[in-house]
Amino acid sequence: MANVIETLKQGKTLEANTCIKLPIEDKASIYGFVPYHRDEIDSCFGYEETVTCPPIGRANVIGDRIIFPLDGKFFRAPIFNSVSTPEEKYPVFLLYVPRFLNLPNKDKILGYKTAFSSEKPRLKGYHKYPDNIRVIDSIPFYMPLNGEFIFSSASKLRGIGNAFVIITRRLCKETGIVIYEVYNPKDVDIIEE
């Protein structure tokens, strides 16, 4: 059995409903993936850049979103159906890039939140982009960086990040209730069928 990261390094795509083995010896299935941006310090607790990274443990899942508390506030992040290594450029429109959401206010990309949430945003006034965004025919494209993953959903929304957590779904043996949990992809093994 290979873990999730090893499987992705082999060029495979992982999708929701894949059977997995959890570190607690239970079998489960993948419900989805939540991308985030990992800086030099890889921590999911207490730093501004981690607002998009749900903490490991039980998960509050509502449809295609995860809701989690951090520092007395509630945050929500999209849950994606599949993850793979990126192949080319991606339109910024409807592309969830956690790294852009976490920039300090002085470095915010002008209009990113509007561009992210709309298929046809107005580009007037957009003049500050990171080096890996290229504007081609008035459309900004994100050029993936080394080590990033691309995430897809049932809708037009896509995501990109250099790290992610897995949302798992399993039946609790004690209660018979379906529970959702957040795991590090290195701790989850893929069950080959």
Count of DSSP strands:
17
Shape: globular
Largest sheet: 6 strands, antiparallel
Structural class determined from secondary elements? mainly beta
- Strand percentage: 35-45%
- Estimated radius of gyration: 17 Å
In DSSP terms (H or I, runs of 4 or more residues), the helix count works out at 3
Task: Tell me, rounded to a whole number, the average pLDDT.
Answer: 81
User: Element order, helices and strands?
Assistant: HEEEEEEEEEEHHEEEEEEE
Strand order of the largest sheet: 4-16-15-3-2-17
Distance from first to last alpha carbon: 11 Å
The poorly predicted ranges are: 40-50
Q: Classify the helix fraction into a percent range.
A: under 10%
Would you give an account of this structure?
- This protein is mainly β and 193 residues long.
- 8% of the residues lie in helices and 37% in strands.
- The protein contains three helices and 17 strands.
- The strands form four sheets. It has a six-stranded antiparallel β-sheet, with no helix packed on it. A five-stranded mixed β-sheet has the order 1-8-13-14-10. Strands 5-6-7 form a three-stranded antiparallel β-sheet, with no helix packed on it.
- The N and C termini lie close together (11 Å).
- The model is unreliable at 40-50 (pLDDT under 50).
